[in-house]
Design brief:
Layout (H helix, E strand, L loop, with lengths): L1 E4 L14 E4 L2 E7 L14 H18 L7 E8 L5 H8 L9 E6 L9 E8 L1
Parallel strand pairs: 4-5
Antiparallel strand pairs: 1-2, 2-3, 3-6, 4-6
Helix pairs in contact: 1-2
């Protein structure tokens, strides 16, 4: 059985998907865009600011499921320009402790709403 996780502390999905789905002892968090959930405004600042907003949105969904960032076992980072990776990585490192989650990072042709970064996660509950 799957259970939807939703919080107003993260932006509403921009399509027909859930912020996260809990299935058994695993939480699957959809890609979190750098959108301020209070204003609905897309991050137009530096990649560090955008990464921070995506990670704050991710954290809000994880916490809404009763978990912590330390329970994340896998992330996927999608970026419009992989040349931004090093700068985004400095912010990413602030949100995780050892042992760090496994991670994949990709440059993609385009992200929803033309954002620069999107981060999804798998969480062990």
């Amino acid at each position: 059985m799957k259970t939807e996780i939703y919080t107003e502390k993260s932006p509403a999905p921009v399509g027909p998907y859930s912020q996260a789905i809990k299935h058994g002892d695993t939480l699957y968090v959809s890609g979190q865009l750098p959108i301020d959930p209070e204003t609905g405004k897309i991050c137009e600042g530096s990649i560090q600011e955008c990464a921070r907003q995506s990670l704050e949105n991710l954290k809000a969904v994880v916490e809404a499921a009763g978990a912590t960032m330390d329970q994340i076992v896998k992330t996927t980072v999608l970026m419009a320009n992989l040349e931004d990776f090093a700068d985004a990585n400095t912010v990413y490192a602030e949100y995780f402790n050892k042992p760090y989650p496994s991670r994949s990072a990709y440059q993609v042709a385009k992200l929803p709403l033309n954002v620069r970064i999107e981060i999804e996660a798998v969480v062990a509950l």
